[in-house]
Amino acid sequence: MAREKQIEEYDVVIIGGGAGGLTAGIYCGRARLKTLLIEKALVGGLATYTNEIENYPGFPEGTTGLGLMNLFEKQAKKFGVKFKGTDVKTVDLSGEVKTVETFRNIYKCKVVIIASGGRPRVTGAVNEEDFLFDKGISFCATCDAASNTGKDVLIVGSGDAAIEEGMFLTKFANKVIVSVIHEEGKMDCNEIAKAEALANPKMEFVWNTVVKRFEGSEHLERVVLENVKTKEEISIGVPTCFEFIGYLPNTEIFKGQVTMTERGYVVVNENKETNIDGVYAVGDVTDKFLKQVATAVGDGAIAGYAAEKYIAEEETYKSQILGKDGVVFVYDASEAGCRDCLAEVEKLEKELQEQHCITRVDIYKSRGISDRMQIDEVPRLAIVKGGKIVKVLDQDFDPEEVKATLV
Ligand SMILES: Cc1cc2nc3c(=O)[nH]c(=O)nc-3n(C[C@H](O)[C@H](O)[C@H](O)COP(=O)(O)OP(=O)(O)OC[C@H]3O[C@@H](n4cnc5c(N)ncnc54)[C@H](O)[C@@H]3O)c2cc1C
Q1: For position 399, which CATH number holds?
Q2: By Cβ atoms counted within 10 A, which residue in 15, 121, 247, 369 is the most buried?
């Protein structure tokens, strides 16, 4: 008989335990939110695939990806974040209470942070699996350029990323050989990058080729290309092959709910908010300029902080705004017009003091509560009765109308 799924409740569920998810966890845990992080593979994410991380601040001697991510995990655990090693199968992100489902469990939560990262597209050539990441097939020139100083390297691809990263690699490598699937002179990158690359004496192009197989014992030693027209094999001796043929975000389970770019990256604003209230996305899964540990960390910090604010505002909204009959003054303390209106509000406050109070909502720091009240302009005076906003008045409000409405 099939076992019924266990239901557990959390404030925040984070999907993905890479640099972005772990940082979001540290912030949520430290804010005393009941937080669950679900990771389907290795906690630490893509960064654990690299031996050397030289560009993460605070480690002048460099660090290993695994070592760095272990520290992130330890810190998140210290703040009480719970970890589950399983695959999130489906999500329902609509509504106030979100549902995240794994094989065995159903998790209900107020906030979901999507931190599921992505995966590089691979060529599918023979033996590719054997040399991925630290064994010679790289997807990150920024990460592996220095270790290829003075060596020949191969790049697969001719798009903007391939050519720009290739140009960067010429500063380190002896020679950068580029395998291009197209006819001589035809590339997928922009014209400026193309002209610069063709003029660079360290760049060498092998046209009409795709990767047929990878060869080596422990580490990559050779890449065998195939000419797509003549079927001729071309063996290139290199210790590193950089594949830049695209990147695939891990967003399949969010399709139809979260707004994504054409390529499937989650669209977020600067607060890492998606199109759905209470749903955030961080790190490589988002549509962003630079995919690195440092930027994923920044995203995670913002989302963790935003999640805490969202939950606190939701509680304030329910208990203090809708929880009792009264008046809510929504204003912006930095605006002179709003400050002028404050005197009138204080007068009304004195008159109402006996039966009703005026709650002040300053939108200067956050619009979370005013957005929930659907108030776009300030100052405004909202009258709440029976758990509902029954009237919204502007600065020329009539105190008698306010009192009459509250009766
Ligand atoms: C070989 C290599 C070397 C690199 N070197 C450097 C470097 O030197 N410096 C640097 O700054 N950056 C480097 N990067 C880039 C860096 O690793 C990424 O930018 C960073 O890991 C992004 O973190 P993230 O949290 O967004 O995603 P990820 O690290 O990709 O983590 C996402 C996690 O989500 C999990 N996940 C996905 N779907 C689900 C699901 N349905 N359920 C549960 N879990 C799920 C995945 O298993 C994964 O662990 C390198 C990348 C690679 C591949």
Answers
A1: 3.40.30.10
A2: 15
